[in-house]
Amino acid sequence: MKLKEVEAFDAFMKHGTTKAAADAMAISQSMVSRLLTGLEEEVGFTLFKRTRNQIEPTAEAFAFHASALRLISSIRDTQKDAEAIANNQMGNVVIAAQPLFCDTFLLDVVKRFKERHPNVGVRLVDVGMQELLKMIDNNTCDMALGITLEADTYGASVTSLARCSARCIMHRKHPLAKQKTVPIKSLQNQTFVELMPDSPLRSRVDYIMQTIDIKRKIAAEIRPMRGVCALVDRGVGLAIVDPIAELLLPGTNVVSRPLDPTIEWEIALLTSKRRPLSNVSAAFYDEVHQEIANLINIGVLQERQLI
Length: 307
Prior knowledge:
The chain is of the alpha/beta class. 42% of the residues lie in helices and 23% in strands.
């Protein structure tokens, strides 16, 4: 059964004559007659009563027309879907990312992406690094955004996007706020707000502090970086944070200072080695790259180091 035959049948049933059907389809009347004959041969039952110079639909033709309409509608929907997919206007993108990224720059990425791809669904899943890596390994997300403080990447493809240098944040009235750069040794016996112990950044800070014998007082521990910044804003203590956290500081009493020596890592985009990116996922990937470039331009991140 050919689509053109079904379309000719639909045109005939709607317009009543082969001539009117031919006009509607912009083909010859004889072509319509051939298409109807071909369809009748394929379905295996009589669609038309034929008299001199005239054909009329049978009761079976009316019953079959309902099925033909569903078929035509389904095929046209499929054609539209194919065009939408080809133009990156259909599908879904699932992105796993650390909560701080979901709270900040990824919001701008989603906004721009939706402006260009309004019919594509976007799902942001905020997870820690371990769960993020497992999602890539299990193919339950299209891509993930994390940091390179984790050694085991579960076989994911890792693309470094930019370099991060830790910041020391504090209430603007804190004595260290007067300094342009905070020497790590000046953190001796200071009161801190910390991420939870299972955080990769917290683990790095703990290791460095123990290595150089810096003792600090931990006033509070909290999982989300937004909470860390809020407690610092309330004067609970100072904190060492991801530079992306600076995006949460406007409108607060918190100031940010670089550390000396610095603590560095890289922000990375992870994808599955076993599953290629769809066109819409690749388009989201491009938007992420553009936003990272914006953050580099305003000084939140630095260019990644080329080996």
